[in-house]
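User: Modeling request: complex.
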Amino acid sequence: MTQNDLARMAGVSRQTVIAIEKGKFNPSVKLALKLANIFQCTVEELFQLEEGD
Amino acid sequence: VIRLILKTVILIFDVFVIILSISLIRTAGSWYSLLLLGLFLFPSLRMLRVIPGFDEREKAIDNLSSNISLGISFVLAIFYIGMKYNLTIDGAISFILVPFVAKAVFFSGFTLERRQSISIIGRSMGLILVGFALLSHGFSTVGLIEMLPGIVILICTELSVRYRLFGLSYLFLIGIATWVYFPNFERITSVLVYSLFVIPFSFLLVRSLKKT
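Assistant: Request completed. Predicted assembly structure:
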C-alpha cells in the first residue's frame, strides 16, 4: 500500500501520512482508529508511547 | 442541527462578502476588493465541498499560521504607531495584505514538503513580479529591467529547490531589499513592499537550508 493509497483511504493528505510516520504529528483518536481499521489492527499495535511522552 | 445552522450562516455571510467584493472592484480600490474575494472565496468553496476540506493536520497548521499572522499584524500596528504614519488607503491595504500574504506563505510552507513549498512560494513571487512588469510596460526595455527582480527570484527558487546551500541566496535578496527599502521607511508603501519581500524570503531561506 502506498502513502497515497493510505491517505485516500483515511481521508487525509499524503503529507499528513508522512508527518504521522515520522512522528511529527499526533493524530486524533478518530484518525488513529481509522488507520487501525485500515490496517486491521488495534490502535495500541499501531501507536506506542515513546520515552518522555 | 446547531452546527448546520452555524455553517449556513457563515456560508451566507461569505457569499455576501464575495458579492460585495465583486461589486466593489469597479467602484472602490480593486486591490482591496480582490483581497476580500481571495480571503473569503476558498473557505466558501471548501464549505460547499467544491474543493477538498482541510484534514486535521492542515487545520492545526491553518491555526498556527493564523496566529503567526496575527503576531505580524501586532508588530505592524506597533511599527505604524511608532512611526506616526498618516493612515492612507495604501497603509490600510498593507495592514491587511501583509498578514494575508504571511498566512499564505506559512500555511503552504508548513503543509507541503520542502521541494513543493519552495517551488510554490518562490515561483508565485517571481511570476507575480514578472507579470506586473509585463502588464505595466510590456516587452520594452523598461519592462525587461523591471522584470529582473522576478527573474532573479525564479532562478534562486529553481537552484535552491535542487541545491540546499543555494538557499543562502535568499539572504542576499533580503540584504538587497533592506538596502533598497530601509532608507525610505518614512513612506508607508516602502514598509509594505519590504514586508512583502522579506517575510517570504526569510521563510524560503529557512525552508531551503533545512533538510526536510
